[in-house]
Amino acid sequence: MSLNFISPGLLTTIQDLGRHGFRKAGVSVSGAMDPFALRVANLLVGNEEGEAGIEITLKGPKIFFTERRLIAITGADLSPALNGQPVKGWRPLLVPEGSILEFGSPMSGCRAYIAVAGGFDLPSVMGSNATFLRAGIGGLNGRALQLGDSIPCRPLPAKMEAFLRSLTRAQLEQPGAQTNWSVDLSLHVAYHEPQQIRVIKGPEYQLFSEQSQQDFWGMAYQVTAQSDRMGYHLLGTRLALAAPADMVSSAVTFGTVQVPPEGSPIVLMADHQTTGGYPRFAQVVSADFPKLAQLVPRHKVLFKEVTLEEAQALYIIQEQNIEKLRGGLHFKTHI
Amino acid sequence: MRKLQESDIPAVRLYPLGDAAVVVHFGDVIGEETHRQVRAFVAYLAKHPFEGLVEYVPAFTTVTVFYDPWRISRKGDLNPYTKVTGFLQRMLPYAVGDGKEQAPRLVEIPVLYGGEAGPDLPFVAELNGLREEEVIALHSGQVYLVCMIGFAPGFPYLAGLNPKIAAPRRESPRPEVPAGSVGIGGIQTGIYPLPIPGGWQLIGRTPVSLFNPDSTSPSLLQAGDRVRFVPIAEGEFYERKELRHEP
């Protein structure tokens, strides 16, 4: 069983929850830009939530399935269609043998995820299947997917057989059977602009001028076309230090808002460098990474301050929601 | 290991980097003493990891400790940051080393200087009023300290460059620097492990690979190592080009 790429889309990569433990060797964590969406996609097909899936950006690929397979599509709504029929996201979908899955216009957000029951049969690099484009490692030969690529899949897990049989009956009435239930819509974030992104003040916040500190909270920033998996460049009020400061390079992470000397903030994303020497103005809370990941160039974003305690409470609520979801799916799918 | 008295403990600041990391800040001075504190702390943390620790990144004057707030909160504590800083605070008095640390590893890096391998060698020489051979002698006549690995996989920040061969970064970075390029940026020197954009002045290239994803230790160099550059001839460069590092 394999997925064959008839067209690759704009930027389609294999991602999991990242390569951990190697930041001290200068290796980025990488992994899904919207980790919540990937985790849910995996849970919907009976995989471990950290299994590798496909990350699609804005313009989706066209994929041919050599065999029948259970999949789930989550994240952005990029108008998925199976054999020409629109299909819905955030639920299990049975793809018959010889099907073609393709994508149309982006309706909301920009990154969608496909998880395939059983996962992909790919070699892991430093404990992960995440594609880290700059170093050329992970995923399929360390690069974005191309026309003609074929991704081998592992066999379907036995525990999904019962669930699959229930879907197969429904399939008699329609090609490409989907469940009539989906993940609770309140659990996943709305991807419409203008987005409010919650941040904690960064370690160097106090070094910025009072004017810059005020401006940052009050004004909208625009995501520029320069943005990629490494970082989002923001256009808006420039931020200035109160006095020149000599910074010593130190660790940065996903969501760090750093400000280079010219003053336009950069939000670091999944493929960010491990260390940096620019002042760190703010830090996006982990629970808002999904919102951040779905921003499209030209989208406007407003930053809202929360405390560290609030950020950690949001983190814990998100993990509790995942646990609830896992329990609910167990009930629904007899996994 | 001797537990130090309160007065022996250097002023260390702890502050959050977002909701899943703590920075342990040993000061703002880059130097041997701060570096020794960073190394000792990392060594202690590696031996005594706490439940929920994800990883840590040593830098010039800081160690950033990444943790999983969810795993820590499961233990009934709804304030993971307070709990983690508590762990780290309690470690600090012990994590100062005992003066009996192993001698640092000295890694020799063969370098083909000048020519196509080091297109900016003439610039660095002229800028400093030196002949190219003098730049090579000064660059390779020094033992450098690997302060940290960062920026890119396996990229070492080296301290110890002779100020006589310092050179400013290029006005605009090269879109792609060949892997193994040895460069000078201000009073720093370093080696590009991968073909990536870079703004340093390139004076040579090493045939040794600094980053090997298939190795158990993917970065050839680690913070704390010492490095010496050894000039080699073109023939040797190509002979050694195929060598992969495997400690």
Q: Helix proportion of residues of chain B, in percent?
A: 10-25%
In the predicted model, the low-confidence regions of chain B spanning at least 5 consecutive residues are: none
**Which sheet architecture does the biggest sheet of chain B show?**
7 strands, mixed
- Average of pLDDT of chain B: 90
Number of helices of chain B: 6
Category from helices, strands and their pairing of chain A: alpha+beta
What is the H/E order of chain A? EEHEEEEEEEEEHEHEEEEEEEHEH
**What's the β-strand tally of chain B?**
13
What's the helical proportion of residues of chain A?
Answer: 10-25%
The helix count of chain A comes to 5
% residues in beta strands of chain A = 25-35%
Strand order of the largest sheet of chain B: 7-6-13-5-12-9-10
Structural account:
The complex is a heterodimer of chains A (335) and B (247). Chain A is built from 5 helices and 20 strands. Chain A has helices at residues 35-44, 161-171, 210-218, 289-293, 308-333; strands at 2-7, 13-15, 53-57, 62-65, 69-77, 80-82, 85-86, 92-95, 100-103, 108-116, 150-152, 195-201, 221-223, 231-235, 250-251, 256-258, 266-268, 275-276, 280-284, 300-305. In chain A, α1 runs parallel beside α5 (308-333). The radius of gyration of chain A is 21 Å and the shape is elongated. The mean pLDDT of chain A is 91. In chain B, 23% of the residues lie in helices and 27% in strands. Chain B has helices at residues 32-47, 69-73, 80-91, 121-127, 132-140, 234-240; strands spanning 13-16, 21-25, 53-58, 62-67, 106-113, 144-149, 156-159, 174-177, 181-185, 188-191, 196-198, 201-205, 226-231. In chain B, the strands form 3 sheets. Chain B has a 7-stranded mixed sheet with strand order 7-6-13-5-12-9-10. Chain B is built from 6 helices and 13 strands. The two termini of chain B are 29 Å apart. In chain B, β1 (13-16) and β2 form a beta hairpin. The mean pLDDT of chain B is 90. Chain B has 247 residues and is of the alpha+beta class. The interface between A and B is large, with 43 and 48 residues.
